[in-house]
Amino acid sequence: MENRPAELGQTMHGAAMLPGRAASASNTQPLLRLDNISKDFPGVKALANVHFDLRRGEVHAVCGENGAGKSTLMKIVSGVYQPSAGTITYKGEERHFSSTRESEAAGIAIIHQELNLVPHLTVAENIYLAREPRRGFLGGSFLVDRKKLRADAKRCLDRLGVDINPDRPVRGLSVAQCQMVEIAKALSLDAEVLIMDEPTSSLTEQETRLLFKVIRDLKASGVGIVYISHRLDEMSEIVDRVTVLRDGRYIATDDFVATSIDAIVSKMVGRSLEEKFPERTSVPSDEVIFSAQGLSRAGVFRDISFTLRRGEILGFAGLMGAGRTEVARAIFGADPLDTGTVTLHGHTLTITSPRDAITAGIAYLSEDRKAQGLAVKMPVDVNMTLANMEAVSNRFGLIDFAKHARATKEYIDLLNIRTPSIKQPVRLLSGGNQQKIIIGKWLFRKSKILFFDEPTRGIDVGAKLAIYRIMDELAANGIGVVLISSELPEILGMTDRVAVFHQGRITGVLETAKTDQEEIMRYASGYARSAG
Amino acid sequence: MADITEVSKQKSGTFSDRQKDIIQKFAALGSLFVLIGVFSATSSAFFTIDNGMTVALQVTSIAFLGIGATCVIITGGIDLSVGSVLALSGVVAALAVKDFGTPVWLGMICGILTGSACGYINGILVTQMKLPPFIATLGMMLIARGVALQITGARAVSGLGESFGELGNGSLFRVVTIGDDGFPTIVFPGIPYPVILMIAIAIAVSYMLNRSVLGRHIYAVGSNADAARLSGVNVARIVSFTYVLSGTLAGLTGCVLMSRLVTAQPNEGVMYELDAIASAVIGGTSLIGGVGTISGTAIGAFVIGILRNGLNMNGVSAFTQQIIIGLVILVTVWIDQLRNRR
């Protein structure tokens, strides 16, 4: 009990001090400064002479394609890795962090893309995990001071201006709420440097806006924020400076206002990227190849009807949780469907399991590649042929390995998949190549319609273009393509028509050429509605 | 371009899975040879054909169960019931012969099918009722043992006749010459039937895992059940199959064991499930699923069998043997972990 007022005071003091620190910070001395950082892994240089500096009260973005060294750099800052060469200067002193514990104690907190919370503990317990306030009992202090735990956690959450009950278990929270808990945890550490890795990758527009507001508040209180993201379009709202890395090398640091997204992208890929989306070559015809009529699933979606024509790419737009993924999964037989009919090439289908759907020629490419799309420990060839083992085996169920290898190689060539061999475990490949393997799997199955669910999430710019090209070619070859995406530019750039979802219903089907982001957002938020 | 650097980084930084697989296998195989070397040096009776056949015969039950356990564990499951199931199967076979007068072969088949039925129930519990495999097979372990004790009144079933012992005690290529003095001399002890069965089953299951669609699906389910389901694999059927296989092999083990004793003991096979799991784990099977080979499990079974046999010959007490085998399991899996981490 004795230490309670002291600690409380300290926390208050720390919080009160933050703006002061910001005011006293001189622009000449950055908060964090990395010079000539190199990191060698056996046989490869992951980072070579990288520079980076972070000022108080700024958001500094780090950009680069997958494998450019962003994560390695951040792991060095947070003490997970030790640099092979170079110096870290933090608050004017040269520092060596040999663990995340040390860097956290110094005030550097990192929020990983995969959030690290314990689902069965409460919000408050998560925020103070392993740092629980203690109280005395029988001469020792092994009991958790639950009152103080709760009060401290509440204070951290209040400072963020988010309304989360500290007593709730983390299990039931949304991704956005979990993120807020992580940020609260960072605040509870009195973090002066906050590293955020892909914080918006699974947030809705609205949640992203709230996150940005919190980031601006933190900025104003003098926290330096390192911001890693693939979504360059949203950076303009918060980012002050941007550093680009490519293949482990330092390319440039610019003031955000003095550069452009195109300039950043061309630095990332090392060439100027004249186009984000390919020229569409497929031409929609009047022939309907797939139609859904009155699909419903209690409490999830209702009365969903749409058609897909030959040569067309149909978009599914909407906010997260609007039912886009759920409809695709139900058509695919992965989730139950209460009512409604599905027709493919004139045949009405009865689908009760993914097996039925696959036999009929429907494919679904999950938004979560690693959890649902691939057996990541297994090699390329196993994943490529998994949905069509019949084609590479004899009637006794024995695999014909020559056919197996031939089929795998055919699709590796067709889709230009970069892998050292067909035996490479897919977890060692980049996101773009993993996605191509999944596409290959369904093409090898001779699928007639493919539902792409967020196909370019977490994939770097160059690979995105390749995926878009493949989608266009599929449509041109008469294969049905449905693109489910939360990124409106992608919807606008790639589709012919777009079905907009709002709370489990289609509020409108729009001609892509005649619409824009604002109109789609109006339908997605339920303000506008038309007969589908 | 970025892809290539990423790939090469991973490749040069760590061993490929295939290389790790080979290292793991040779590590287990190496320790097997070390054991053989040490025991040959410490006991002159160890490295003989007679003892070799004895070890092989002793290893058969661990190997049968281990092969089943490997398949179950590859799918990410576990089967704790095999020790009890083998007792029930052996008892059923013996009772069929003794009380119902069935021919021995038919009684044995009844026993083996009893094992399959137990495995089938395990499969239903896991795939339809969605019980965790640990719990489902723990229940089956208690039930099967209870039934075995119940139907025999907890007494051994004996007086089964010589033909009941044929499967467990007979052997192939046994060469015996009658000497001048009229006494037979055993030139070659022959290969016991159970050993032949073990080799045949090991090859068959290994072939199934590596060459067949079914085997491919078993690995896929263990590696990522969701992805397998969304690729059209009938996950429930694949998982059920592995439990049926494990139960069937437990049934066979029961018949072989009881046949060797020519007596059916309802108390036979206690803790055998742990030997089976240990042999799979020593052989590199991952309890997380997706990884495991029959050759590895065979090596694991022989490591355990040779340790027991060799330690016995050197007069090491049964208690010390347990300690040593426990340590061997810990060290092998620890080495495996170290490799996977790097």
Structure description:
With 532 residues, chain A is of the alpha/beta class. Chain A has three domains: 29-116 and 178-269, 3-Layer(aba) Sandwich (Rossmann fold); 275-361 and 448-532, Rossmann fold (3-Layer(aba) Sandwich); 379-446, no CATH class. Chain A is 34% helix and 25% strand. Chain A has helices at 3-24, 70-77, 100-106, 123-127, 146-160, 175-188, 205-220, 261-269, 324-331, 354-360, 369-373, 380-385, 401-414, 431-444, 461-476, 488-494, 517-524, and strands at 32-41, 44-54, 59-63, 85-90, 93-95, 108-111, 134-137, 140-144, 193-197, 224-228, 241-246, 249-255, 288-297, 301-309, 313-318, 339-344, 347-349, 362-365, 449-453, 480-484, 497-502, 505-511. In chain A, helix 5 crosses helix 6 (175-188) and helix 13 (401-414) packs across helix 14. Chain A is globular. In chain A, 48% of the residues are buried. The model of chain A is unreliable at 1-26 (pLDDT under 50). Chain B has one domain: ABC transporter involved in vitamin B12 uptake, BtuC (Orthogonal Bundle), CATH 1.10.3470. In chain B, helix 3 (49-74) runs parallel beside helix 8. At the A-B interface, helix 10, helix 11 and helix 14 of A face helix 1, helix 9 and helix 10 of B.
Taken from the alpha-carbon principal axes, the silhouette of chain B is: globular
CATH architecture of chain B: Orthogonal Bundle
Percentage of residues in helical conformation of chain A: 25-40%
Radius of gyration of chain B: 21 Å
Strand order of the largest sheet of chain A: 6-9-10-3-11-12
Radius of gyration of chain A (Å):
26 Å
